[in-house]
Amino acid sequence: MKIEAQRMAGVDVQNRREKDDFYPTPIFATQSLLDREKFIGNIWECACGTGKMSEVIKENGYEVMSSDLIDRGYGESNIDFLKSEKKVDNIITNPPFKLSQDFVLHSLKLVKNKLAVFNKLNFLEGIRRKEKIFNQNKLKNVYVFSRRVSFLKEGQTKSAGGIIAFAWFVFDVNYNGKPTIDWI
Predict the structure, then answer these.
(1) Superfamily of chain region 2-179
(2) Which pTM does this prediction carry?
C-alpha cells in the first residue's frame, strides 16, 4: 500500500526519474494557455524537447524559436538557456522542474513582454521564490488545472492520471501588481 501511495504521489520508488527532468507538456495544456492569453511578438520555447509545445504555439499563428540544451531531434540543440543573453518578446516553456526558479529569474531579464511557465502549483511556495520572484509583482495570472495533468512517456497512450496539481504562471514585465488566479 505504501509503495502504491508513493507511486500515485509522483514518487518513483525505483528512482526512475526521466533523464534531465524531461516531461513533455501535453498538447491540451499548451492550448489551454493560448486560449486564455494573447502574446504580442515572437515566442521562444527554450526547453523545447521534442517540440510538442512549439508545434501548438505555431498552430496558433505565432512565430516560435525553439531550443533545448539536449538534442531531442527538434529545434536548435546544445543551447544553454541559462547562459543566453538573447532578448525576445515572450517566452513560453516547461523548464526542468529542478531548474524552474533559475529559468524564471533568467527569463524575466530576457523578455520584453510575457513569460509563461508550466509548473507544479507548489511553485508558489518558498521563501526564496517569494523574495526573488514574487515580490517583483510581475506575476499577472495563474491558471490552475482543475483536472490533474498526466505526462505520457514516449509510446504510452493511456494514463491513470496524476495527483500533482499543475498551473500556468504568466509573468508580464510591464505589470506591477498582484496576480489573478483562474481555473482551467
Answers:
(1) Vaccinia Virus protein VP39 (3.40.50.150)
(2) 0.84
